[in-house]
Amino acid sequence: MSTNQPRQTKAQRREAARLKAKELREAQARRAHRNMIARRSFIGVGGAAAVGGLGYLTYLAVNRNEKDFPAAGKGLATEKANQSGVPKQVLADASWTYGDGSQLDTVAASAPVLDIYFDYSCSHCAQFEGTHTQEINQLLSDKKITLALHPCKILKQQWTSVVMNAMGVVLDEAPAQSLSFHGAAFEILSQVLQSKDQSLMTVENLVAAATKVSVPSEVSAKFKSAVDSDKYKNWVELGDKAFADRDLQGTPTVFFKGEQVDLSKLQSPTSLTELVTGSTPTAQPTEQSSQQPAQQSTEQPAEQPAEQQGADEGAEQQG
């Protein structure tokens, strides 16, 4: 069948193809814009409902420019967390402080802040704690520092949640013994690493450790209930959020006067004191600490406690 429409010239066909391509590009751009809006809406809703894990950390990574906390080492959080599932003395970034001796929730006047980021399942954190507990206690006694402890669960081990639930009870109900219990919890991990006996990581051993540092029995008796119900779950998640928000990579991470400290310079039992006072080194690194001078834990410990093989299995063993 013939048509009365004249045949398009080559130039006209080329122009028509150009216009069609332009329309396709514009349509594609509109679809991409709609998809972007939809993704942002989904992330906003999903981020509010997330409770940790890779998805939540990915959400935090996408929103790195929206900081909820002071930069690492750049000052203490100024407000309490003030939410259920978080000990009442804990600050908005999940940390807690000692400044007047070992008294919880105090700040030593005019004393610089020593920030320590840690995970209760971190072997290097246990080593750091064992090396420096005595001098930290002395520095606090001399009011030369304000100690800010920043917990997190970057290793994703169930033991960290177990310890933080017990620690939450102590912070809320036996604050005078909280710093000693913090050290006692790390002593259990040190014993596990030395003996390779994973069965030591139990609520019962946390109760025994609490007894050794004078936590009242009526307080430690609440550990099991707190662990079983994951009473301080919100605190664990808050610590992870603060850690990720501050772009930190491993534990332990230490800041003093706002500057990150090279862990290779903190090998001896007097190195923190030398850092704080500006004195010259008086002790050589111990054999144990010199073997791993500047390591941080960013992956799971080589020896995974039996309780950490699954949430359900762990709950039965911890009970």
TrEMBL record:
Residues 279-319 have a biased composition (Low complexity). Residues 272-319 are annotated as: Disordered. GO terms for molecular function: isomerase activity. It comes from the Bacteria. The keyword Isomerase applies. Residues 110-263 form the Thioredoxin-like fold domain. Gene3D superfamilies: Glutaredoxin. Keywords: Isomerase, Membrane, Transmembrane, Transmembrane helix. The chain crosses the membrane at residues 41-62. The keyword Membrane applies. This is Periplasmic protein disulfide isomerase I. It comes from Actinomyces viscosus.
